[in-house]
Structure prediction request, 348 residues.
Amino acid sequence: MIELYATWLMLPTLLSRFVQRLFSKRAAFWAAVLVVATIAATQSPDTNKDRQTYNFLIDAIQDYDQISMEPGFYLLVRLLGSVLEGNDLYAAFYFLVAAVSIAIKLRLFEIYGGSMFGCLLAFLSYFFLLQDITQIRTGLAIALLYLCWFSYAEGKTRNFWLFGFLASMFHVSCVLFVVAPVFRALKNWRQCTMVGLAVVSVAAVGLVAGSPVLGAIDLIGRAVGIDKIVIYLELLDEGVLSEITPLRLIPHTLLLVSTAFMWRRWRKDTLMSLLTRINFVGICAFILLSPIPAIAYRVSDLFLFSGIFMIGRLGLYVPRLAYRPLVVGYTGFFLVYTIQFSGLFHSA
Prediction:
């Protein structure tokens, strides 16, 4: 299984380089988008439960059933459903969502990622499998979210609010786009250390206190009308999505620590500084929300996606002989984790 996925996911990288040699860089870009989007859109419902769930939701929206769903997803299904139905609707919806998501992400990798090779491999080894194949709403939302955050970094206030709003229209967790000022507030590693210790302390209290903390979160979820929080808490009571996997955090933490140790090499790179802060917030979010694993995974991944750009930008400062093993180690760990331990691709 590992060898099959590793070979399959190398295809976009190899094809894009081949097309670039024959034609142009722009042709290579769209070839990569086409291949990766096609891989994402043509997954069988038997590969994971998320695809079955989305098929059910699409049918429910077409039948005007009462469902709780972000407006962006709902409107897109209704728009496509006005001209298509059945399997044609499924295929068009999955391909359109994947193509837009992949095109935005690859463009962001080109502009902000440094090494396109490093970004693409890191992306395909984990977040592509997790989001663009399974959690497709998150896949599209996170592309818009990073357009939002990069706009914030460049002082483009209007774009910041526009892309933040659009991201939250496809996944409610992206309302966290408003925490962008926190990234600037963390000005040095001493502050980060203090925040990290505080987060660990609060998480420890949450784990020890147990039910009272979860009860408070449940009340907040019901008060503000976020059904997902209530659903996740109900699943937690039933023993579903009840285990946290610290293994998932290891490569993110090692990447952040390694990047911090190489600070002198990139200290004038303001974008890398921003990315490390976003990554740090993601690790803190994972720890802080660990009493509710499902929410911890969903929220932390919004921030930990920044690791892809960090991997790419390290290619600007690390010698090639050292950079390639770093990329292979990072992507290899996640590829093994995603296929063997995450359960994403076990038969539904």
Observations:
- The two ends are 17 Å apart (CA to CA).
- Residues 86-112 form the longest helix (27 residues).
- Residues 208-212, 238-242 have pLDDT under 50 and may be disordered.
